[in-house]
Amino acid sequence: MKRLLVLFLSLFALSSGLFAFPAYPKNDTTYRLPNGHTIELEFYAPQEALPFFDASLLVNGFAKIAETYKINEDFGILFVVHTNNELRLGVVFKDLQAADISDLKPMQGGNGLHLLPLIVPRDAINVVESWFVSFLQNKSADKPTDFLKSIQSTPFYVQYQTKLSNGSLLIEGNFYGSTPSELRPVFNSTMDIEDLSTITNHKISLDPQDFYLSMLQNFYTFVLDPLDDQNNPGQRTENIFVYWLFGLPSPSPVKTGTVQAGSAGTPSANKQVYNVGDTGPAGGIIFYDKGKASDGWRYLEAAPSDQSSGIQWYNGRKIDIETGTAVGTGKANTDAIVAAFGDGSYAAALCKNLTINGFSDWFLPSKDELALMYTNLKKAGLGGFGKDGLWSSSQFNDNFAACEQSFSDGNQVYTWESWEYSVRACRAF
After folding, report:
1. For 269-289, how does the pLDDT look when each residue is reduced to its tens digit (9 = 90+)?
2. Sign of the C-alpha dihedral, residues 384, 389, 395, 396?
3. Are 218 and 293 within one domain?
4. Contacts (Cβ under 8 Å, ≥6 apart) of 18
5. How remote is the C-alpha of 411 from its chain's centroid?
6. What is the pTM of this model?
């Protein structure tokens, strides 16, 4: 707890420039999670107010995060009201081990960019925010309210402590919203990394700033490129310390200018070449290479496992949808199907809404794409396919049937959309 407090206090100085003193004394509370780990809460507010915060939101929220992302360590939470009418919320992932950080550490995206995932810190800070809002929405007449009447801002931070390098990563942001229930976290475009063995700090400003944050459906990342110092060609910026923190080798630098601000362009440097059968960027299996990039993609990657063992092609409505059968049409088919059917539980929506390892650009393969998946993966003993039929996204117009392919003998037939077959999503990059 003492080490945690020292780190918290150093964070105040780092993030605000001027030390912002708490307006209330500290109260320590510990909550135990189902996995045996704990949440250590440092509560700089009236102790009598704490019972009016719904502690079950903290426990259940962080229990889910620990289970989902396999984080087997303790958490730290900070709630502090400052004398300058600022409320600060904080989350600490404590003493992370190498095996714990698969969803936190830097990764390479499908377009070659070096990324730092943000979905876990986003989920964590949302849990703390919901716990804070539970106090605001508590209608008890006994609830003390004076200490939150004049709050002017609500910044937050998320900190990673790693045993790998005895280092600390600080990600900051602020809550925005017109009412408490509408508060949403927005991350800043800078990070701080502290080497606790030498007490040195590295501030990382992500550049270009209008490209640093990628928000793809439910996946949030910092884009760590470019890694070359624009003012000193050939000299890498302090982004490399992000990799040091997690005990990872620094990637080859992406040259300045190869990524256009505000776009999802593929860097020309450090581009990886894949072969059919290789593991793809999303953890799936490459099943097609058209030889060179065109129309924004070169490879097709199958998901590592089936998304369903039996689901209908349609959502109960018979709609004639314009779809293609050729390689390269699966994504457009999926978009057209979901646009026509809307919400519901059906094959295309299952793929459209899918996120695997942070990638959310999956789609239901077309008739010819599914045939390639069968030929290049199933027949080669790759992908863990069974013998069941799989849906394609190719509809046989006017008859309300869609193409299904048997993964037992490879035959393709058009069958009624109400029948249930398996689904294996794919993506293009």
Report:
1. 233 678 898 888 888 899 999
2. positive
3. no
4. none
5. 38
6. 0.55
What's the pLDDT tens digit per position in 315-345? 988 888 989 999 999 999 999 999 999 999 9
Using only C-alpha atoms, what is the Rg of the chain? Answer: 25
Please check whether residue 242 is in contact with residue 224, taking contact to mean a CB–CB distance below 8 angstroms.
yes
Domain end: 214, 242, 270, which one? Answer: 242
Do 235 and 312 fall within a single domain?
no
Q: Judge if 363 and 415 occupy the same domain.
A: yes
Within a domain: 331:
yes
Structural domain including 182 reads 2-242
In a domain, 373, yes or no: yes
What's the first-to-final CA gap in the chain, in angstroms?
A: 46
Strands (E), 314-419: 389-396, 401-406, 412-416
Looking at the structure, do residues 214 and 322 belong to the same domain, yes or no? Answer: no
Sequence-ordered strand ranges (E) for 234-354: 285-294, 297-302, 308-312
pLDDT tens digit sequence for 30-64: 999 999 999 999 999 999 999 999 999 999 999 99
Tell how strand 155-162 and strand 167-176 pair up.
antiparallel
- Residue 110 in any domain: the answer is yes
Within 10 Å of residue 92's Cβ, how many Cβ atoms? 26
Six-digit token string for 341: 């059917």
Rounded to whole angstroms, how far apart are CA atoms 240 and 250?
6
Residue 391, helix vs strand vs coil: strand
For residues 85 and 140, the model is more confident at 140
Angle between helices 119-136 and 55-69 (to 10 degrees): 170
Tokens 């993966």 belong to which residue?
377
Which helix (H) or strand (E) covers residue 147, if one does? Answer: none
Phi, psi of 107 (to 5 degrees): -145, 170
The DSSP element (H or E) to which 128 belongs, if any, is helix 119-136
Q: How many domains does the chain have?
A: 2
The verdict on 229 and 303 lying in the same domain is no
403 CA to centre of own chain = 33
Q: Strand, helix or coil at 63? A: helix
Q: Is residue 249 part of a domain?
A: no
